C-alpha cells in the first residue's frame, strides 16, 4: 500500500508504480504536485493493467474537468475501486456530469467525495440523478459546492427513491428554507440514511420545525449535523 502523500510525481513514475505493483490496493496522491497528464496517465494505466486498486485519494491536487473525465472513464469499466476521494479540486459541472455518467454504470464504488469542486446546479443535478440509478454507493459527500435550493429538491427526490445510501454530506451548498423543507420531508419515507451532515446552509426556523416532525417518524437516522444554519434558539 502507498499511504504517504507524495509531493511531486511524473506520469512515467506513476505508470511504473502501478504497472510493477498489480496487487497495489491503496494509492494516496492527496496534495501531490501533479499536472493533468499525470491524472490521464493514471487513468490509462488503470484501464490497461489488471490493477487491484480499491482505494484512491486524489484530493487537493488541483485537477480540472478533464481530470475528472479521465477518472470517470475508468469507473465505467472498473469493478474493483471502492473508495474515491477527489475533494478540493476544480472539476466543475463538466467533470461532475462525467462522474455522474460513470456512477450510472459502476457497480463497485461505495464511497465518493466530490466536496469543494466548484460544482454548480447542473453538475449537482446530474450527480443526484445518478444516485437514483446507482445501487452500490453508501457514502456520498458533495458539500461546499453550489447546489442551491434547486439542488435541494433533487436531493429530496433522491432520498425518496435511493435505498442504498447510508451517509450523505450536503453542508455548505447554499440551500435555503424551501429547499431545506423539501429535504426534511423526504426523511419521512427514507429508511436507509443513517448519517446526514447538513451544516452551513440556511435552514431557518420553519424548516427546522418540519425537520423536527420528520425525525419523529424516521427510524434510521443516527447522526444529524445542522450546525451554523440560522436556526434561532427558542
TrEMBL record:
GO biological process, one term: nucleocytoplasmic transport
GO molecular function: GTPase activator activity; small GTPase binding
Source organism, top-level taxon: Eukaryota
GO CC annotation: cytosol; nucleus; perinuclear region of cytoplasm
One of the Pfam families matching this protein, by short name: LRR_6
Keyword Repeat: yes
Keyword annotations: GTPase activation, Leucine-rich repeat, Repeat
Record-linked Gene3D superfamilies: Ribonuclease Inhibitor
The protein's name in its UniProt record: Uncharacterized protein
Organism, as annotated: Aplanochytrium stocchinoi
Amino acid at each position: 500500500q502507498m499511504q504517504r502523500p507524495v509531493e511531486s510525481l511524473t506520469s512515467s513514475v506513476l505508470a511504473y508504480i502501478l504497472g510493477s505493483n498489480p496487487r497495489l490496493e491503496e494509492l494516496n496522491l492527496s496534495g501531490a504536485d501533479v499536472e493533468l497528464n499525470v491524472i490521464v496517465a493514471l487513468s490509462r494505466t488503470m484501464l490497461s493493467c489488471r490493477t487491484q486498486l480499491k482505494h484512491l485519494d486524489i484530493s487537493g491536487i488541483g485537477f480540472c474537468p478533464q481530470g475528472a473525465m479521465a477518472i470517470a472513464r475508468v469507473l465505467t469499466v472498473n469493478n474493483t475501486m471502492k473508495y474515491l476521494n477527489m475533494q478540493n479540486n476544480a472539476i466543475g459541472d463538466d467533470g461532475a456530469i462525467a462522474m455522474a455518467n460513470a456512477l450510472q454504470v459502476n457497480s463497485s464504488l461505495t464511497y465518493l467525495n466530490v466536496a469543494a469542486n466548484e460544482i454548480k446546479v447542473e453538475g449537482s443535478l446530474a450527480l443526484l440523478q445518478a444516485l437514483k440509478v446507482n445501487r452500490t454507493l453508501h457514502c456520498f459527500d458533495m458539500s461546499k459546492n453550489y447546489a442551491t435550493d434547486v439542488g435541494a429538491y433533487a436531493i429530496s427526490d433522491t432520498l425518496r427513491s435511493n435505498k442504498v445510501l447510508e451517509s450523505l454530506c450536503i453542508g455548505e451548498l447554499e440551500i435555503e428554507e424551501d429547499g431545506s423543507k423539501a429535504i426534511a420531508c423526504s426523511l419521512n419515507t427514507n429508511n436507509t440514511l443513517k448519517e446526514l451532515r447538513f451544516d452551513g446552509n440556511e435552514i431557518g426556523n420553519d424548516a427546522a420545525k418540519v425537520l423536527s416532525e420528520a425525525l419523529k417518524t424516521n427510524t434510521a437516522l443516527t447522526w444529524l449535523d445542522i450546525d451554523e444554519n440560522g436556526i434561532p434558539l427558542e
